[in-house]
Amino acid sequence: MFRRLSLLAKHLSKPLPNYSHLSAANPKSSPIPSSPMASATPAQKGLIHTAACLVIGDEVLGGKTVDTNSAYFAKFCFSLGINLKRIEVIADDEDEIVEAVRRMSKNYDFVVTSGGIGPTHDDITYQSIAKAFGLPLVLHDESFQRMRRLSKPHKSQANFDWDTPSAALTAKLRMVQLPLEESRPIKDEQVIYVQDDLWVPVCVVNGNIHILPGVPRLFQNILDGLKPHILPRLTDPNGKGISRVLISTPLPESGIAEYLTKLAAKVESKGIKVGSYPRWGKQHNTVTLVGRDLEYIMSLVPEVEKAVEGHRVKVEGEDEQEETDPNSPRILSS
């Protein structure tokens, strides 16, 4: 079966842009030429302290699509106590993808990419990441078999046949040609399936680059499914995450800036961060206390409430009142 599939992939891959030099029939085919700067050894699987998200897509930069995946990833990291250090949005450009994933893989423990792994010519994430780390693109038979079993051809493709060469099959095969290092274990090391009823693989490159689709529903489901794989590598394996306490204040930021500066210096050694967020056109601004030591944070609340003449709230803006008088004063951030 694999030989037949490989021969079919070899035949179909020839017309694809940027794929003519790859042979799915020969899994030992030469890697895409790579810069000497590419990492030769995978990142070590140590504890996860930091994370980064790379959103790939011309449609995001062009305003056609609103990126919600990075916001979901930020909440995911916060809930698990992972320090999200960077979010970038870049074009479907090979050079930019290569540079970004090399840099992020080197600098952060857990990296997620979003987008660019579909069936069309501009979906170049797999091939670009392969180039970044000097890896071959390999037709992954298990992913193909899962796709074949769990996905259905579009209703417009009434004559589609999984065993007959066609443009539609060529396009589908693009989504299971993965950047793999064949000297390392593939199962659960380089390819992860998070749901039994979902064929889409999470390809893990260089030990810490996790390649996810850009479709928000898929991105969110797959990211949530990765949680069991992430928990054992967290500083807090219980995944309790970071706590955030909100304090609403009627004072402008300039009125509390001096106090917050002193407070931030006082609590820095405890790993607590103090934030101040203006709410333009509203009656209250927000002060935040963020950190892992909830007990210590709560001990600070009475002091902060008094200093900013405010009180703790569960949700930002919950104490706002609708203003019916258009001439009533509104605070600004200054």
From TrEMBL:
Any Gene Ontology biological process: flavin-containing compound metabolic process
Domain MoaB/Mog per the UniProt entry, residue ranges: 52-233
Leader peptide range in chain numbering: none
Pfam families, A to Z: MoCF_biosynth
GO molecular function, one term: FAD diphosphatase activity
Cited SUPFAM superfamilies: Molybdenum cofactor biosynthesis proteins
Chain positions covered by the region annotation Disordered: 311-334
Domain of life: Eukaryota
InterPro entries: MoaB/Mog-like_dom_sf (IPR036425), MoaB/Mog_dom (IPR001453)
SMART domains named in the record: MoCF_biosynth
The protein, known as: Molybdopterin binding protein
